[in-house]
Amino acid sequence: MIKCTRSHKYYDYCFMDGPAVLDPTTSTFYAADPTGPTLVEKIKPYPRKFENSTMSRIKELTLISGPPGPKCHVQHTGPALVFSAGGYTGNVFHDFNDGFIPIFIVVHSILHDQAPILVISEARDRWVSRYADLLKIFSKHPIINLDNDTATHCFTSASVGLISHGLITINPTLLHNPKTMVHFHAILVKAFGKHRRDSKPWTFPGHASSYSVEP
Q1: Residue 125 CB neighbour total at 10 angstroms
Q2: Cys-Cys link to 214, which of 8, 42, 69, 199 (CB 3.0-4.6 A)?
Q3: What are the pLDDT digits (tens) for 39-73?
Q4: Residue 98's closest CA among 111, 86, 80?
Q5: What is the pLDDT of residue 205?
Q6: Computed from CA positions of residues 22, 28, 31, 32, in that sequence, does the dihedral angle turn out positive or negative?
Q7: Which stretches of the chain drop beneath a pLDDT of 50?
Q8: Name one GO molecular function term (predicted).
Q9: Residue 89 in contact with residue 130, Cβ under 8 Å?
Q10: Nearest to 46 by CA among 83, 90, 14
Q11: What is the dihedral sign for C-alpha 181, 209, 139, 64?
C-alpha cells in the first residue's frame, strides 16, 4: 500500500507500508498488491517543492502498487529511507536544513527509530565523503546510490521523501519518540567531535543558533 502526503508547502512524502522492491535502473519502487487496483505515484524526494528551479534538478521517482515487481537481487531486513542529496548540496546550512534534520525527523517519527537503509539520488562523492561519519550514525548499511546501482533491492518498507518542520526546527510533539535539537546536537558530537578539538561552536550560516561539537 502506498500512502502519500502532498499538502505541505515544503515537501511531498510517500510511505510504502509493506515489502518494497527497488529497480534503480528506472528509479522505480514496487509494492505487490494483487488484490487492489494498480496505483502509480510520482515524487521528487527533496523538501523544497516551492522552488521550481531547485526541484527541476531533483530526480523523480516512481512508486507502483499492483502486480509483483522485478526479481530481488539484494534482500534487506530493514526499511529504505529514500531522499535526494541534490538541490543546494555543498551549502552547509542547506545540507542540514534540507537534509540531515529532515532525515532525523523521519527516523524518529515514521520509521519509529528503526535503522534504515539509505537510498540516495544525486549523492555526489564529495558530499558522501564530507558527511561519511554522520551518515554512518543514521545507518550502518552501505548507501545505495540511485544514480549508479543496477541491482534490484528488497526492503521491509520504503519511506520516500524528507519531512521538514520548518527552518532548522524539530517539533518533538510530531515525533513518535520525542526528540529535540539537543538530541540532534548529540549525534553531531558523536559524528564530528573527534575531528574538532578547538571547542569552536558549530554554526549554521545565516542562523543565530550554534552547536558546540566538542567531545
Answers
A1: 8
A2: 199
A3: 999 999 999 999 999 999 999 999 999 988 899 99
A4: 86
A5: 41
A6: negative
A7: 199, 201-215
A8: glycosyltransferase activity
A9: no
A10: 83
A11: positive
Q: Are 20 and 155 a contacting pair, CB within 8 Å?
A: yes
Confirm if 24 and 143 have CB atoms less than 8 A apart.
no
Beta strands 210-212 and 61-66: pairing type?
unpaired
Beta strand spans in 89-209 (E):
117-121, 144-145, 153-155, 158-160, 201-203
211 near 201, Cβ under 8 Å?
Answer: yes
141-135-56-147 Cα dihedral, nearest 10 degrees: -40
Q: Cell 509483483 identifies what position?
A: 68
Element (H or E) spanning 192, and its range?
helix 181-192
- Residue 109: alpha-carbon gap to chain centroid: 13
C-alpha cell at 100: 540531515
**Structural domain includes residue 7:** yes
Residue 123 covered by a domain: yes
- 116 residue type, one letter: P
Does residue 154 form part of some domain? Answer: yes
Task: Work out how many domains the chain is built from and give that number.
Answer: 1
- In the chain, the N- to C-terminal Cα span, in Å, equals 43
Domain presence at residue 133: yes
- In angstroms, the Cα distances linking 111 to 79, 85, 92, 177, 180 are 8, 20, 25, 10, 17
Phi/psi-derived region of residue 87, left when phi > 0, alpha when psi is between -120 and 50, beta in every other case = left
Say how far apart CA 169 and CA 85 lie, in whole Å: 19
Tell me which residue range forms the domain holding 87.
2-168
